[in-house]
Design goal:
Elements (H helix, E strand, L loop, with lengths): L11 H19 L16 E8 L2 H17 L3 E8 L4 H10 L6 E2 L3 H9 L9
Parallel strand pairs: 1-2, 1-3
């Protein structure tokens, strides 16, 4: 079977990048709505968000690029980034959270999410 020369091939890497971008964008977009589900009035007040994630260097580069694109579209939003390899991530996150210094946005597996929610580290972003 031959593929057309202009056919788009979706690779695992493309899917992972899209998933990472979606993971980053979801909390940011959810924070922009009001209780009625209507978008909040756009503000241009400067905002700095701290973001902490783990993974390989490729994920770090992809995340940094996604954040640059976001800042290019919304120049009043800046990010204080912290990336860490897989080892020790949850220990560092637990230490930050226990000290009241949890990042604004952080990567977490769904298995650990309820623990952080119960400790009041996460926010309910439901409409």
């Amino acid at each position: 079977m031959h593929r057309a020369a202009n056919a788009h091939v979706t690779t695992r890497r493309t899917l992972l990048r899209a998933a990472a971008l979606g993971t980053l964008a979801a909390p940011l977009l959810a924070a922009c709505s009001t209780e009625t589900g209507q978008p909040a009035p756009e503000s241009t007040e400067p905002v700095e968000l701290s973001i902490f994630w783990w993974g390989a260097e490729a994920r770090a580069k992809a995340t940094e690029e996604a954040l640059k694109l976001y800042t290019a579209k919304y120049p009043f939003v800046t990010f204080k980034t912290t990336w860490q390899g897989n080892q020790g991530y949850y220990d560092k996150l637990a230490t930050l959270a226990a000290g009241g210094n949890a990042p604004d946005i952080f990567q977490i597996d769904d298995g650990a999410l309820s623990e952080y929610a119960e400790r009041g580290v996460t926010l309910d972003l439901s409409p």
